[in-house]
Design goal:
Helices cover 58% and strands 0% of the residues. With 211 residues, the protein is mostly helical.
Length: 211
């Protein structure tokens, strides 16, 4: 298998020498974010939008790229070749959206609850059945609603509810992507969140066919 650092970009230059920047850029000469790098490697016209990458993972990476520190952002470079050609069928796309919603509810939201001293509710959410389909998404949505009503921690409620509600209505493309955005927003502690973001990317990429 080719070392990602040795992969040559169209027009020259190795991927390992690339420095990812925050935001999108009008011209490639101004620099690239992670999705613009994916487009570059795929040989497409400069943009942060691409037809070659899974839209759910791409949506997550756009936000993650811009919320990372300059140092953290470089850790996204190994995912660039993995994103090229990662677009799959509808069932796989929805399954990846369910994974994002599951992380929002059972991984990220408990961090915020613990941050507010509500460990018992964090434990409750972590113990929910994994979100893998509409039924488990509905159950998680209802549980999250009750937890945030009882815990009186409203800061993360909208994000978590949006994630599971999006998963419930995953037949709508925009809803699946909303689950990804909510998964990004649902955590309170940035230092804890970063490795979990990378873990979520790996989990979504691992889905090759619908479960």
């Amino acid at each position: 298998m080719t070392d990602w650092q040795e992969i040559v970009l169209p027009g020259g230059g190795k991927l390992g020498d690339l420095v990812l920047l925050k935001g999108n850029h009008a011209k490639r000469e101004q620099g690239v974010c992670v999705l613009e790098a994916v487009v570059w490697l795929a040989g497409e016209e400069h943009s942060d939008q691409t037809d070659c990458a899974c839209p759910v993972i791409a949506a997550f990476l756009r936000v993650t790229n811009d919320r990372a520190t300059d140092e953290q952002r470089q850790e996204l470079r190994p995912y660039i070749p993995a994103l090229v050609g990662s677009k799959a069928g509808r069932k796989v796309t929805v399954a990846r959206g369910f994974v994002a919603a599951d992380y929002a509810v059972r991984v990220f939201a408990p961090l915020r609850l613990e941050y507010h001293g509500r460990k018992e509710y964090a434990t409750l959410l972590r113990g929910l059945t994994p979100i893998t389909d509409k039924a488990s998404a509905v159950a998680a949505r209802d549980a999250a609603r009750e937890v945030y009503r009882r815990a009186s921690v409203t800061a993360a409620y909208a994000a978590v509810y949006a994630a599971v509600d999006a998963a419930v209505y995953a037949a709508v493309d925009a809803a699946v992507y909303a689950a990804v955005d909510a998964a990004v927003d649902a955590a309170a502690l940035k230092t804890t969140l970063w490795p979990l973001r990378l873990e979520l990317i790996d989990a979504m990429l691992a889905i090759k066919e619908a479960r």
